[in-house]
């Protein structure tokens, strides 16, 4: 698959479809390997996009607060008990 820029949602949708096809089990091993490789590229695209968005949010937060404290995402999530 040629490298092209995909929106996060597009890449995630394609990745989800690939996972479904592979999990279905009705594909040949060669086709599954090809899909797996394509999935790795899409997963990297998603990761790159998320990293970009995270940096953008941090920049906006710094500009809004003028003082910035980086809090890991999982620490900021409240769980319902």
What does this structure look like?
The protein has one domain. The mean pLDDT is 84. The protein is elongated. Helix content is 67%, strand content 0%. It starts with 7 loop residues before the first helix and ends in a 16-residue tail after the last helix. The protein has 81 residues and is mostly helical. The protein has two helices and no strands. Helix 1 packs antiparallel against helix 2.
Rg (CA only): 18 Å
Shape: elongated
Continuous helix count:
2
Overall domain count:
1
Oligomer: single chain
The largest pleated sheet is described as: none
How much of the sequence is in beta strands?
under 5%
Overall helicity = 55-70%
Q: How many extended strands?
A: 0
Distance between the termini: 45 Å
Q: What is the residue-averaged pLDDT?
A: 84
Main structural class: mainly alpha
Question: What order do the helices and strands follow?
Answer: HH
Low-confidence spans: none
């Amino acid at each position: 698959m040629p490298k092209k820029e995909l929106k996060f949602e597009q890449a995630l949708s394609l990745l989800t479809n690939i996972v479904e096809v592979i999990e279905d089990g009705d594909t040949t091993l060669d086709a599954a390997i090809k899909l797996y490789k394509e999935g790795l590229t899409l997963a990297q695209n998603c990761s790159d996009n998320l990293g970009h968005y995270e940096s953008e949010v941090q920049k906006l937060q710094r500009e809004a607060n003028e003082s910035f404290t980086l809090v890991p995402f999982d620490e900021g999530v409240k769980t319902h008990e």
